[in-house]
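User: What would this chain look like folded?
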Amino acid sequence: MKGRTILYSLGTLLLGAIVGMLFAPASGRRSRALVRDKMVKAGHKVSEFSTSKARHVSNVAKGYYHDAAHLVSRLARRTAEKAEEEERAA
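Assistant: Here's the prediction, encoded as structure tokens.
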């Protein structure tokens, strides 16, 4: 809950700064271009971050899948061995 409040506060501050720069009478075209460039840069950073996190999560999931598949195959092998032993004993 505390982290969400901090994020909302930072977002509000950022939005206020952007609105202030957009409507500043002395800034004009240059300020709007700076804001646009910063927003594009921030968008690229967010995109890169989310892409790398998604790749990491995908790799971790693949690892879990392979671990589970290995355990299932070991279990199936043990079950088959026990069935063979019981068949031989009977």
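The CA atoms of residues 24 and 64 lie 54 Å apart. If you want, I can go into more detail on any region.
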